[in-house]
Write a structure and sequence with these properties.
The chain is α+β, with helices and mostly antiparallel strands and about 160 residues long. Helices cover about 15% and strands about 45% of the residues. Strands 1, 2, 3, 4, 5, 6, 7, 8, 9 and 10 form a 10-stranded antiparallel sheet that branches. The protein is extended.
Length: about 160
């Protein structure tokens, strides 16, 4: 009898593991793939460039700071990051009534998951979102930062 119980528990365990594996494979892929750049942004006597890259379920970022106004090497500071990304809301309504995508980013350094809101335009440009403070009715929304437009990088 104990041998039958052990076999039944093993079979149940394998079925549960199989279901988790199947659900993980069925997870939504990111709705965009490729790389986008902010281009060279001048800030006083320095300049900076940000690059975002999206894969099947990953987000990578690269930020460089330069001691000149042309984003010319060598950089004086660089940041590289990567995160597992999931679609949290594929049809997020922004504060101006437009539609955006909200991703949840799970960073390698085990920090708390962070949201990333993107608006993907018809001409393949990206803009990022920022949270708006709660209004008098207690609702909060995301607005799109139209001051920085990310353009696709050639493959």
């Amino acid at each position: 009898m104990s041998k039958t119980i052990v076999i039944a528990l093993v079979v149940i365990g394998l079925v549960i593991l199989g279901l988790f594996g199947w659900q993980h494979q069925q997870a939504k892929q990111l709705p965009l793939t490729g790389s986008w750049s902010s281009g060279c942004m001048v800030d006083g006597s320095k300049s900076k460039e940000f690059i975002m890259e999206f894969g099947k379920d990953t987000y990578r970022s690269n930020a460089k700071l330069y001691d000149n106004t042309q984003c010319q090497a060598p950089s004086i500071s660089e940041y590289h990051g990567s995160a597992y990304a999931e679609v949290a809301d594929a049809h997020l309504q922004t504060c101006d009534g437009a539609e955006a995508i909200m991703l949840t980013l799970y960073w390698d350094d085990k920090t708390q998951p962070k949201p990333l809101v993107l608006q993907h335009t018809a001409d393949n440009k990206l803009m990022t979102g920022f949270p708006q403070e709660k209004s008098s009715d207690g609702k909060s929304a995301w607005c799109i930062d139209k001051s920085t437009v990310y353009s696709p990088l050639a493959k």
